[in-house]
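re the bet — no i am not wrong, look at it urself. input seq straight from the record:
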Amino acid sequence: MTQELFDKYYYTRPGFEGGTRPFFRICREQIPTGSQILEIGAGPSNECSEMLSGIGTVTGLDVDEEVKTNEWLSRALVYDGKQMPFDDESFDACVSNFVLEHVEYPDEHFKEVARVLRPGGVYCLRTPNLLHYVSIGARLMPHSVHLLLANRMRSLEKDAHDPYPTWFRSNSRGRLQRLCRMAGMGEATIMMVEPEPSYGRAHALLFYPMMAYERLVNASPTFSGFRITILLYVRRPLKSLAVDKRST
């Protein structure tokens, strides 16, 4: 119903990028070619896993058995969502794509990421912003209602995976910076993105006000804190290796 509107106002506009290209560009710029990469919450075959497989060797980790069907992974493991089944300093990079909103214990998550990263290794992530109307709605409504509406509003296929339960316990810029520092990974680089209003696909009555919101928050950096997507990358400091040697 709204495809022509998306074509007119977004997809045919010069310079249109959407929300995925900026995240993929960060991954390609920050992760060296040939890296050992851990994709956290890899899920079944998807374009993020495919992109990462073009950079290095990708290990997938997920709480769902579906990860074992992901054709772009060199290996796939299922875990409990807490302790990662890897030795210390096993990976050059970790990546999570719309996963953090589903993490119940983010303190543990970031500490585990820091543990499995090698010194100088990078963590790249994409997650929704807690201050955006989509996130606010997801937090306020019961999960049963979220299941009913989320995929329908985005006009996804009937066989699309149902949304996982959300916690939103790390979904602000300030909270993410604190989590990175607490895990010993220092200061993160954060960007805010408001792409096309994907939740407006169901009807033009949703599309137009959501487009107006997108135009407003993209009009000035002053409103960047209200954009929907947080893009972040942070590195485990190289100096941690020297500290480890002195402590031993």
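see?? The radius of gyration is 19 Å. told u. also Residues 3-240 form a domain with the Rossmann fold fold (CATH 3.40.50.150). so pay up
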